[in-house]
C-alpha cells in the first residue's frame, strides 16, 4: 500500500489548496491540470457528478443548467478535481449548444489525460418545455476500449425513465 503523494508528484498541481483561486468566467481549457495515476496497471472508472453546470445559449444568451456526468478509465494521467471544477465554471459565460459543450469537454479531457476510455453526459434542465441530454464517448483506437465505446453508445440510455435528475 502506498503512502500518499510526494511533493515531486504534485509539482504540476497549482490549484488544489490554493487560497488565492481566481475564477475565470470565459471558457479556458488551460485551467485543467493532471497528475500521475498511481494505479496504471488496473482498469477502473473515475466518475464525476457535476450538478451545477451552467453555460449560455448561443442564440438567446439565456443560462442553461445541467448535471454533467464525466466518467473515464485512466491510463497514466488523471484530472485534478479542483481544476475540473474551475474549468467547468469557465463555461458560465460561454455560449454554445448543449451538444457542443459536452463534446468540447470530452476533447479537452482527452487532450489532457489520453485516457483509455471517456464519456460525458449532459442532463440539461428543460427550457421551453424540452430537455436536451447529449452523450458522447470515446475509446482509445486499437484497444478494447474502442469496442467498449461503440457498445456503450449503441446501448446508451435505453431506459431514460430510470435516470432522474429533474
From TrEMBL:
**What enzyme category does the UniProt record give?**
oxidoreductase
Question: Which InterPro entries does the record match to this protein?
Answer: GTP-CH-I_C/QueF (IPR043133), NADPH_dep_7-cyano-7-deazaG_red (IPR050084), QueF (IPR029500), QueF_type1 (IPR016856)
**Record keywords: Oxidoreductase included?**
yes
Reaction(s) catalysed by this chain, per the record, are: 7-aminomethyl-7-carbaguanine + 2 NADP(+) = 7-cyano-7-carbaguanine + 2 NADPH + 3 H(+)
Q: Give the signal sequence positions.
A: none
Q: Which GO terms describe its molecular function?
A: preQ1 synthase activity
Please provide the record's keywords in A-Z order: Cytoplasm, NADP, Oxidoreductase, Queuosine biosynthesis
Q: What is its EC number?
A: 1.7.1.13
Q: Which SUPFAM superfamilies match?
A: Tetrahydrobiopterin biosynthesis enzymes-like (SSF55620)
UniProt subcellular location: Cytoplasm
Which residues take part in binding substrate? 79-81, 98-99
Q: Which domain of life is it from?
A: Bacteria
Active-site annotation: 57, 64
> Pathway membership of this protein?
tRNA modification; tRNA-queuosine biosynthesis
Under HAMAP family, the record lists: QueF_type1 (MF_00818)
Q: What does this protein do?
A: Catalyzes the NADPH-dependent reduction of 7-cyano-7-deazaguanine (preQ0) to 7-aminomethyl-7-deazaguanine (preQ1).
The text of the family note is:
Belongs to the GTP cyclohydrolase I family. QueF type 1 subfamily.
The protein here is known as NADPH-dependent 7-cyano-7-deazaguanine reductase
Encoding gene (name) = queF
Amino acid at each position: 500500500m502506498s503512502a500518499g503523494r510526494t511533493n515531486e508528484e504534485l509539482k504540476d498541481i497549482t490549484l488544489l489548496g490554493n487560497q488565492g483561486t481566481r475564477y475565470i468566467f470565459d471558457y479556458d481549457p488551460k485551467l485543467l491540470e493532471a497528475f500521475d495515476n498511481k494505479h496504471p496497471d488496473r482498469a477502473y472508472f473515475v466518475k464525476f457528478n457535476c450538478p451545477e453546470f451552467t453555460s449560455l445559449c448561443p442564440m438567446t444568451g439565456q443560462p442553461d443548467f445541467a448535471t454533467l456526468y464525466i466518467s473515464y478509465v485512466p491510463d497514466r494521467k488523471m484530472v485534478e478535481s479542483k481544476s475540473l471544477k474551475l474549468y467547468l465554471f469557465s463555461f458560465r459565460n460561454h455560449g454554445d449548444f448543449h451538444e457542443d459543450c459536452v463534446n468540447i469537454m470530452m476533447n479537452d479531457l482527452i487532450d489532457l489525460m489520453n485516457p483509455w476510455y471517456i464519456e460525458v453526459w449532459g442532463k440539461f434542465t428543460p427550457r421551453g418545455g424540452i430537455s436536451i441530454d447529449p452523450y458522447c464517448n470515446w475509446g482509445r483506437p486499437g484497444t478494447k476500449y474502442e469496442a467498449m465505446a461503440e457498445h456503450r453508445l449503441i446501448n446508451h440510455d435505453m431506459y431514460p425513465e430510470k435516470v432522474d435528475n429533474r
